[in-house]
């Protein structure tokens, strides 16, 4: 089994979901008492969030790249960045290390293609919805990406940072996100992407009519496949 290097803590609530899903995936594949070989570096999210808010992306990229190098030196065979938003600095991490970087955008794009979806809705932080680093990774001549209007983007961002990142699940916020997704469906969206590792803490796919592509689940599944693959 290969060792996965997880860069987590953004937030801790979602990182524990990654840890659970990866270990469950390994156990399902191998049975018995098997679990994943994992190295985890969990950051203090407050420091990272300040860099986000101040647009200090180069500094944030250098911080996470340093963590990636340390995980590689400690024996990781691949890196998993346990957050959508910080994939804005994915190139900094990838360029600073020599082991595979499992990019959440590439994995999501494969799931879109497998589902033959041509119009997808994207939900995440304002950085993820507005700055294009994920949408451009999955958009193509065959795939269009819908994001909510500005007022809804602000509301989703508030739910993520003020509630979910603090481990709080508010039923009223679930209804807000369900309404936003219903609006996307009315615009012709065929599937919705949970492009924030915390959204799955609030919404279950069974709460929705549309198919859901949960990037956390897809990313964790791909990590397990890498860890157990025969070279």
Q: Which features characterize this protein?
A:
single chain, 231 residues, alpha/beta, 4-stranded parallel sheet, 3-stranded parallel sheet, 11 helices, 52% helix
Describe this structure in words.
- With 231 residues, this protein is of the alpha/beta class.
- Helices cover 52% and strands 13% of the residues.
- It has 11 helices and 7 strands.
- The protein has helices at 12-30, 45-53, 57-73, 90-96, 104-114, 126-130, 135-138, 150-163, 171-186, 199-202, 215-228, and strands spanning 4-8, 38-42, 78-81, 119-123, 144-146, 191-194, 212-214.
- The strands form 2 sheets. The protein has a 4-stranded parallel beta sheet with strand order 5-4-6-7, sandwiched between helices. The protein has a 3-stranded parallel beta sheet with strand order 2-1-3, sandwiched between helices.
- Helix 1 (12-30) packs across helix 11, helix 5 crosses helix 11 and helix 8 runs antiparallel to helix 9 (171-186).
- The protein is globular and about 50 Å long.
- The chain starts with a strand and ends with a helix.
- The model has no long low-confidence stretch (mean pLDDT 95).
Q: Count helical runs.
A: 11
The share of residues in helices is 40-55%
Distance between the termini: 11 Å
Question: What's the story with the biggest beta sheet?
Answer: 4 strands, parallel
Average pLDDT, to the nearest integer? Answer: 95
Main-sheet strand order equals 5-4-6-7
Going by helix content, strand content and strand pairing, the class is alpha/beta
């Amino acid at each position: 089994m290969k060792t996965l290097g997880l860069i987590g803590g953004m937030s801790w609530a979602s990182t524990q979901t990654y840890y659970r899903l990866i270990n469950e995936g390994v156990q399902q594949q191998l049975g018995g008492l098997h679990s994943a070989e994992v190295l985890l570096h969990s950051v203090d999210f407050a420091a990272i969030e300040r860099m986000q808010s101040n647009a200090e992306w180069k500094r944030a990229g250098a911080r996470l790249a340093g963590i990636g190098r340390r995980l590689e030196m400690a024996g990781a065979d691949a890196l998993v960045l346990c957050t959508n938003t910080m994939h804005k600095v994915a190139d900094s991490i990838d360029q600073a290390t020599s082991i595979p970087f499992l990019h959440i955008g590439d994995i999501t794009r494969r799931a879109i293609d497998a589902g033959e979806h041509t119009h997808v809705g994207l939900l995440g932080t304002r950085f993820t919805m507005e700055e294009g680093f994920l949408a451009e990774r999955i958009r193509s001549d065959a795939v269009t990406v819908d994001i909510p209007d500005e007022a809804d983007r602000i509301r989703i961002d508030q739910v993520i940072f003020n509630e979910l990142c603090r481990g709080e699940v508010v039923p009223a916020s679930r209804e807000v996100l369900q309404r936003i997704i219903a609006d996307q469906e009315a615009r012709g969206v065929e599937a919705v992407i949970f492009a924030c590792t915390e959204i799955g803490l609030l919404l279950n796919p069974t709460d929705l009519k549309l198919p859901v592509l949960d990037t956390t689940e897809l990313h964790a599944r791909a990590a397990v496949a890498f860890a157990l693959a025969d070279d």
